[in-house]
Structure formats: structure tokens, C-alpha cells
Amino acid sequence: MHKKLALLHMKPEKADLAKNRRILENALDKAAEHQVDWLITPELCTSGYCFDNEIGHSWISPQPDRWTTLFLNRAGQAGICLFLACPEQDRESGRYYNSVLVFEPGFGIRGRHRKIAVQKGFESWSSKGETAKPILCQGVRVGVIICADAWYEEIPLGLKEQGAQIFISPAAWPPEPYSPYPCWESITRKTGLPLVICNRTGQEDDLPFYTSESLVMKDGRKLAAYASEEPALLTINWDFESMQPLDSDFCRISI
């Protein structure tokens, strides 16, 4: 099975929900034009990473809300599976989470992952997710890990034990002061699974993301990578039988 993956190396605007939604809608249209099968977004792409110190978090609602429902419907019409990283409120407990919704056309939301390795400070609004389980998407068992979830090896190793075939990781992870590369290299070596990381660019507060990399890694080696001040839609053709890219690097599409 061959699929075209797209990573949205985005520049989210802190607390500007309307602008971020427009960016996402434009990226979805671009993905449809380029016949993308899976579209992956970076961590907290709808709100920006540092939103809480500007607009708080009482506005966060259970997902999918009205805009998300319309956005998923558009993805469904385009035949695109979507990994949408957004804040959400649990309908029953009222708690807030840093989440990823996994959407498949014809099936709706196949599952969601709530970040377990929640960081102090900018993420203090979020409760910790309790479990990580593979999510089935087009017959593939996907292990979703959000950014620092990769730092704690028991999370990806547990997903591998449960049958995950590939890791998808929406992230907002600058290379300093805590480099992600050692943990990314380690988990791909220990599990033998490929890791697809959708990172971001821009800056929020004192966090510069301009050199943050979106990449594909397997067995501790980078197979494709991109870092730039310029946001882009990064596509790569993927063979799900060999779990290898069919291209030597990303194709970059301006957004």
C-alpha cells in the first residue's frame, strides 16, 4: 500500500484562532490539489503553543466543535486522513487536554491521543493523558505520540508492544535547550518502527522554533528532514508494506 503523506510545517500564531484556522483550511486545499492521503499537523496548531497566558483556556470545548466538524467534513470530501493536533475538553470530566484527533474518511474520528508527558509552564492548563493505544487508520496501526511523549520511552515502547506499525508525532519542539534527537534516535532503534515528526516554525514568547525540524526517521537515521523560517507543506510518498519512504526527501510546497 502506497500513500502520500503531508506534514504541515506551520507557523501557528499564538492565540489567533481565526488566523490558524485559515492557515489550516488553505493547507487542506493544497493537500487536496496534490492528492495527499494523510495530512499531519504540528502540536496545538489551532491555538499556538503559548496561548494560555494570553487568552486562557476556558474557551476550549469538547471536540469536534463546530469548526472542527466542518474541517473534518472537508477532509472527508477530499479523501484525506487527518491528524489534527488541538486542545480539547473532556465532555464528562470537564478537564482539558493537549490532543490529536485521528480522522479517516468514511469512518469519522477513529481515535484520539491525549498527551501524557505534559510540560510545566506553557502546558499547565492541560491534564495528563492516561493511556496510549494504537489507532487504526486505513488498516495501519498508528502509534500517536505528542512531542515530549517521545522523551519517555515507555510510551512508544508500549505502543510497539500493542502492535503499532508506525509512529506519528505532532510536535512543537525546538532543538534547544533539550534536544529531541537522542530520544528520537533511541526509540526508532529500539522499536524498529519509523517515526514521522511534524514540527513547526516561528516563535512564541521566548521559544524560537525557526530551526525545529520536521523529519522522517528509522533505525536512528534521518530519511528526510526540513527546517526553515518559511512554513511549508512537506509531502513524501510512503510504502506501508516496507515501511520506507519512496522518495529521498520531502517535496516542499509553499503555503
TrEMBL record:
SUPFAM superfamilies: Carbon-nitrogen hydrolase. Pfam families: CN_hydrolase. Gene3D superfamilies: Carbon-nitrogen hydrolase. Keywords: Hydrolase. Residues 3-240 form the CN hydrolase domain. It is an enzyme of class 3 (hydrolase). Its EC number is 3.5.1.100. GO terms for molecular function: hydrolase activity, acting on carbon-nitrogen (but not peptide) bonds, in linear amides. This is (R)-stereoselective amidase. It comes from bioreactor metagenome. The gene is ramA_1.
